[in-house]
Write a structure and sequence with these properties.
Layout: E1 11-16, E2 19-28, H1 32-40, H2 42-48, E3 50-54, E4 61-66, E5 71-80, E6 84-89, E7 97-106, E8 109-119, H3 124-142, H4 150-162
Antiparallel strand pairs: 1-2, 2-8, 3-4, 4-5, 5-6, 6-7, 7-8
Helix pairs in contact: 3-4
Length: about 170
C-alpha cells in the first residue's frame, strides 16, 4: 500500500489557508544521503525528472526543464542536506509557487515528502498526478531500471486526483 493509502495514490490535493497544496510521499529502499543526491544532483535529476542548470546553492537562481513539459526559473531558498530542500518556482512572478522536499529516515529506507504550494485550484490535480509519476520514476531509477513514458502515467493518474471525492 502507498504511504497515503488512497487506492494506490501517493498523495492528495488539499487547501490550507486558502492555498492549494499538493502533497505526495513515498518510502525508498535507500539511505538519506543517496536519496538526497538523487533529488539534488543535476546528473541524477536528469534521469528521472528534469534538466537543471544554474547557481545551485541557497539564494541561487536556476533554470529547470521538466520531463512533463514545464520549463522555467527557480530559486533555492533552503538547502539543509540531507533533510530539507525548499525552492521557489517562477520567483517574483504572479504564478510563483513553493516546492519543498523533506527526507526522513525510516526503519527500512528513507521517506520523501514533496509539497507544492500556491498552485491554482484547477491545476492542482494535474500537478498531483505529475508528482506521483515523478516519484514512481524516481523509484524506477533507484532500482536501476529505465523509466517509461511519463505522459502516459500522468494521464492514467490524472482522473483519480481530479475526482470530486479527492478534493
Amino acid at each position: 500500500m502507498s504511504p497515503m493509502g488512497h487506492n494506490g495514490l501517493l498523495g492528495e490535493v488539499r487547501v490550507v489557508d486558502g492555498v492549494s497544496v499538493v502533497h505526495v510521499e513515498d518510502v525508498y529502499d535507500t539511505d538519506s544521503d543517496d536519496l538526497w543526491q538523487a533529488i539534488t544532483d543535476p546528473a541524477r535529476l536528469r534521469r528521472w525528472i528534469a534538466t537543471v542548470e544554474g547557481d545551485l546553492q541557497p539564494g541561487g537562481l536556476f533554470r529547470a526543464s521538466f520531463v512533463g513539459g514545464w520549463e522555467g526559473p527557480g530559486r533555492i531558498e533552503v538547502c539543509d542536506a540531507p533533510h530539507r530542500l525548499l525552492l521557489t518556482m517562477e520567483p517574483d512572478a504572479a504564478d510563483e509557487t513553493s516546492l519543498e522536499a523533506l527526507l526522513s529516515a525510516q526503519d527500512h529506507g528513507t521517506r520523501l515528502v514533496i509539497e507544492e504550494r500556491g498552485i491554482p485550484a484547477d491545476q492542482a490535480p494535474d500537478h498531483a498526478a505529475g508528482w506521483q509519476a515523478h516519484l514512481e520514476d524516481l523509484r524506477t531509477v533507484l532500482d536501476g531500471r529505465p523509466t517509461g513514458p511519463w505522459s502516459q502515467r500522468w494521464a492514467a493518474l490524472r482522473p483519480a486526483y481530479g475526482s470530486p471525492e479527492r478534493r
